[in-house]
Specification:
It is a single chain. By secondary structure, the protein is α/β, with parallel strands linked by helices. It has one domain: Alpha-Beta Complex (2-enoyl-CoA Hydratase, Chain A, domain 1). The protein has eleven helices and ten strands. A hairpin with a 2-residue loop joins β1 and β2. It is globular and about 55 Å long.
Length: 259
């Protein structure tokens, strides 16, 4: 399967596929841009009633950002802020899609993959799916724009546990943490996700859009100042970040110094 953001259409239901063969569908710059553009395009389509967002194949929904790009794309705070704006744009394109969005999750849903899934309206996964955000091992923070969705879904205590421990955990624990709506047998994930999409598509489309709008309004988050927002990228200038990325690429254990 080709890499990039793939789109299929079946009546009033669209499928958006994250595809990066050999890298567990990790998103590179072109894919983040493609996801943002695709979701905005679908949001504007009045004939659409539901979007299913998934990863290519059975191994992963998405394994986050493509770390192979970090040395060239996210080496400094300035680059980190630019790349962070790109990620935030993609996240918001999913969250603000006027049509209901279902995350169809098979396999690994970690890092940025979990952040994208949290921006969807519903999340359905298989019993062998795995979740987590192990970015502490990279000396990397989850910025404000990336925190929004996961925090809204799981709450403060769970998000702190996920980020501070950096564990990767299974589907039943993810369900207990409210990260997913439904866990089904691996062989049933597609059937259940598309059956859910069909039920949504059978309803009044304006009502679905209004409900999304009303809930977003009631769930409004406090405004973050530009200074606070930019502080989310200070990690890119730390020695620990450089240590963490180098260790990941070399497949060794990082030795962090705290500066």
């Amino acid at each position: 399967m080709a890499s990039g953001i793939l789109i299929e259409r079946d009546g009033a239901i669209a499928t958006v596929t994250l595809s990066n063969p050999g890298k567990l569908n990790a998103l590179d710059r072109a894919m983040w841009e493609g996801l943002a553009n695709t979701m905005r395009q679908l949001s504007a389509d009045e004939t659409l009633r539901c979007v299913v967002l998934r990863g290519a194949g059975d191994e992963a929904f998405a394994a986050g950002a493509d770390i192979a790009e970090f040395a060239s794309e996210r080496a400094t705070r300035e680059q980190g802020a630019q790349y962070g704006a790109l990620i935030h744009d993609a996240m918001q394109s999913v969250a603000r899609c006027r049509h209901p969005v279902i995350a169809l999750i098979k396999g690994a849903c970690v890092g940025g993959g979990l952040e994208i899934a949290a921006m969807c309206d519903l999340r359905i996964c298989g019993e062998s799916s795995r979740f987590g955000v192990p970015i502490k091992n990279l000396g990397l923070t989850m910025g404000y724009g990336e925190l929004q969705g996961v925090l809204a879904v799981a709450g403060r205590a769970v998000v702190l546990e996920i980020l501070l421990e950096g564990r990767v955990f299974g589907a039943q624990e993810a369900s207990a943490k409210r990260l997913v709506n439904r866990v089904v047998a691996d062989a049933e994930v597609e059937r259940e996700a598309y059956a859910t999409a069909a039920r949504i598509a059978a309803g009044a489309p304006l009502v679905a859009r209004w409900h999304k709008q009303y809930i977003e309004r009631l769930d409004a988050t406090p405004e973050v100042t530009p200074e606070e927002w930019n502080e989310g990228y200070a990690c890119f200038d730390s020695a620990d970040y450089k240590t963490g990325v180098a260790a990941f690429l070399a497949k060794t254990k990082p030795q962090f110094e705290g500066h």
